[in-house]
Amino acid sequence: MVISYEVENYLSFLRPARVDLTVGAAVPDNYHFVPADGVRVAKIIGIYGANASGKTNLLRVLPALADFISESFNKPLESAPPFAPHFFNPDAPVKIHVEFQSPEDGSRYRYSVEVLGKRVLSESLKRKTSKLFSRVFERNWEGDTYRVVGLGDRHAPNLRENVSWLSWLAQYNVPEALELVQYFKSISSNMIGSNVRKQSWFGSLMATEFFRRSPDYTARAIKQLNRWDIDINDICFEKLALPGSDNTDGPWMAYGVNKRGDKTVRIPMIEESSGTNGLFSVLSIVMPVLDNGGVAIIDELETDLHPHMVDALLDLFVQPDTNPRNAQLIFASHADWLMNLLHKTQIMLVDKTEEGSEVFRLSDLKGVQARENYSARYRSGAYGGVPEFN
């Protein structure tokens, strides 16, 4: 469970920008918040702001970090970690911090990394013991080599400068590293390479790859779609032949199977309505996240979906029976009506400044009441985070 994360000198965020998911004692108890090591944490966070304000950049942080921690060992030697600096400050390091709780044993961690170009300058992990955080490992670049102290330090020789220490240790089957890598693998998003949002057709192909490998998830997805008034009797998969070829070396295609009486029709999923396609893609992300207690990162959550469908998606994370492991959803949206489904502590606003982007919590603004119409007030410009026309 993510408790908070912070970036500095990352993409459009020059100054430190923090997303805090904890809430105070004054916030009412309900299914939107869960306990985590002495604090309460939101299961859902919505990020709002004008076009090009930096919303998607704020969403990219966790998927990029997950990719770095879980996959950097397998990346080419010349590749850089997936953390681009602020556009006007390329010679300073990117700094990222995340605090989280392991779903396996409840341990609370603080992870930090600083990256400049292709090189990790520093990386550390601390675990909470009683009231304090104790070092698990610390890695620092010292001129021409790394100094590593703590977990797995005997494996430090030949450590590559573009690889996370956790990813490195996972290759040596260090148990704690394997557990943490697995946790970060449970962060899933609808962005390609932690970058741009997947288009609907590509998202459908990615969902096809996921579902065809898991008959159980496919059966559950069909039931969920039926609950949401999508009339699909079955989903089947077929490998396509490449143009001009008799073999089947093309991509896999998913088909929605529709039955009426004694007639059966198969429709390629990418030719279904954009809403059905969107739900098919989103379910491939959120279903394993809900099962594993992970984090779903969704850019433009409302795209192609009826408002009732978006409400139903949020409800999957709110209700304990569909979210028994306290998975989390962090989304960006322009659908301001969704604000009224959230508490003011669950709404983050991103604004433009002369230096780039800044983020603040709606509850940090003075005078915001718990029961006011957030959507109307936001649309009026009362909170900021909206376009300013000249």
Question: What is this structure, in a nutshell?
Answer:
With 390 residues, the protein is of the alpha+beta class.
Structure commentary:
Helix 1 (55-71) runs antiparallel to helix 3 and helix 4 crosses helix 6 (274-292). The protein has two domains: 2-186 and 295-379, 3-Layer(aba) Sandwich (Rossmann fold); 200-278, no CATH class. It has eight helices and 19 strands. It is α+β, with helices and mostly antiparallel strands and 390 residues long. It has helices at 55-71, 165-170, 175-185, 200-212, 215-227, 274-292, 307-318, 374-379; strands at residues 2-8, 17-20, 22-23, 33-36, 39-42, 44-49, 94-101, 108-116, 119-129, 132-141, 146-150, 187-189, 234-239, 252-260, 263-268, 295-299, 328-332, 347-353, 356-361. Strand 14 (252-260) and strand 15 (263-268) form a beta hairpin. The mean pLDDT is 92.
Overall strand count: 19
| Adjacency order of strands in the biggest sheet | 2-1-7-8-9-10-11
Number of helices: 8
What characterizes the major β-sheet? Answer: 7 strands, antiparallel
Percentage of residues in helical conformation: 10-25%
- Return Rg in Å: 22 Å
Q: H/E series, N to C? A: EEEEEEHEEEEEHHEHHEEEHEHEEEH
What is the C-level CATH assignment of the largest domain? Alpha Beta
Form type: globular
What count of domains describes the coordinates?
2
The secondary-structure class comes to alpha+beta
CATH topology of the largest domain: Rossmann fold
First-to-last CA distance: 42 Å
Average pLDDT over all residues: 92
- Give the low-pLDDT segments: none
Judging by the overall fold, what is the CATH architecture of the largest domain? Answer: 3-Layer(aba) Sandwich
Beta fraction: 25-35%
